[in-house]
Amino acid sequence: MARERNSFKMGTVEMMTLFILSKGDFYGYQISSLIGKLTDNRVTVPESTLYPTLYKLVDRKLISDKAVPSGKNRVRVYYHLEKEGEERLKELLEDYRKITEGIAQLLTTEEIYEEDV
């Protein structure tokens, strides 16, 4: 069960990350913070979960990364949504819509009969 939950969470982290990057270029800590802030901390994505997702998205060429000097001997890596990432985000949002509508329909079912199976 934990494996399925982790897979579901990783899919939602990918969707949320692509969505945030559709609004602009951000570095990892900003993305993690924005997810928490924009969900009133109902959803938190620690950087230890976020960075593997970012690396995977870069490898799949859905996003690109750019190192930018930031202060004294520091570099921040900003992530940018690519055209392929925009297409992937559309797919994920459509899947999310279908799944949430289906779950809502199921959860409003008053009674289930053996004939329904």
Q: In terms of topology, how is this protein built?
A:
Blueprint: H1 2-21, E1 26-27, H2 28-38, H3 47-59, E2 63-69, E3 75-81, H4 83-107
Antiparallel strand pairs: 1-3, 2-3
Helix pairs in contact: 1-3, 1-4, 2-3
Structural class comes to alpha+beta
Topology as a string of helices (H) and strands (E): HEHHEEH
Identify the strand order in the major beta sheet. Answer: 1-3-2
Determine the mean pLDDT: 90
Global geometry: elongated
β-strand percent reads 5-15%
Uncertain segments: 1-5
Structure summary, number of beta strands: 3
Distance between the termini: 24 Å
Major β-sheet profile: 3 strands, antiparallel
What is Rg?
A: 18 Å
Any overview of this molecule?
This protein is of the alpha+beta class and 117 residues long. The chain has helices at residues 2-21, 28-38, 47-59, 83-107, and strands at residues 26-27, 63-69, 75-81. Strands 1-3-2 form a three-stranded antiparallel sheet. α1 packs across α3, α1 crosses α4 (83-107) and α2 (28-38) packs across α3. Residues 1-5 have low confidence and may be disordered.
Gist of the model:
This protein is α+β, with helices and mostly antiparallel strands and about 120 residues long. It has helices at about 1-20, 30-40, 45-60, 85-105, and strands at about 25, 65-70, 75-80.
